[in-house]
Write a structure and sequence with these properties.
With 203 residues, the chain is mainly α. Helix content is 71%, strand content 0%. The chain starts with a helix and ends in a 12-residue tail after the last helix.
């Protein structure tokens, strides 16, 4: 029993440590998104030439099946420039604060896929698999981080997500469901006080 308790405490400590590391990475990633979004929203040169330059490069590197989206961006560059800046700022604030982290990560993953499609054919790169992966390693890394934050409930540690995602509440709700009753049978057995043994009569 003591070994099982020690093993459980060690696992709990490792899980808590991992959650803290993931929260720190989440905050750092959100801060980076805030910088990117703030630069796009408050830098006049981005509206004058930055976004237009990015569109010109995207027209040469975008995937063939993604040209309709590129054409739509060309038709309304000012609107999409503001939209991109607001989107990145929203992602950054959501990750830093740990608020609505899972929906924000889902939106961010779609945004990363959009960036991969816009830079599908990198100038000077071939179509070999390892060259494509190397060209999009940055987007894939951010995509993987957002997926980790999404699955790992990263907003519940050092974030506002802890206010509406309480582990104790979710555990109590599982106790009420009959299909998960077997998970808590050991807890009930541990809570039972050992009954004193009856004295054996001596001859």
């Amino acid at each position: 029993m003591m070994r099982a308790t020690a093993r459980t405490a060690t696992m709990s400590y490792n899980s808590e440590r991992f959650q803290r590391v993931m929260a720190a990475v989440r905050i750092a990633t959100g801060f980076a998104f805030c910088v990117y979004g703030g630069t796009k929203l408050f830098d006049p040169t981005f509206f004058e030439s930055g976004f237009q330059f990015a569109l010109g490069r995207a027209s040469a590197t975008a995937a063939d099946w993604y040209y309709p989206v590129v054409h739509s961006l060309w038709m309304h560059p000012g609107i999409y420039a503001v939209a991109v800046g607001m989107l990145e700022s929203f992602l950054g604030l959501a990750l830093v604060l740990g608020l609505a982290t899972r929906p924000a990560c889902l939106v961010g993953m779609v945004y990363m896929l959009n960036k991969i499609a816009l830079t599908w054919h990198i100038a000077g790169q071939g179509n070999i698999a390892w060259q494509v992966l190397d060209a999009h390693m940055e987007q894939l890394a951010v995509f993987g981080l957002l997926l980790l934050f999404l699955v790992g409930h990263a907003g519940e540690t050092w974030g506002l997500g802890a206010l509406y995602h309480s582990p104790a509440a979710s555990r109590s709700s599982l106790r009420e469901r009959p299909e998960y009753k077997y998970l808590f049978e050991e807890d009930k057995e541990e809570q039972k006080e050992p009954q004193p043994k009856e004295p054996t009569p001596h001859n």
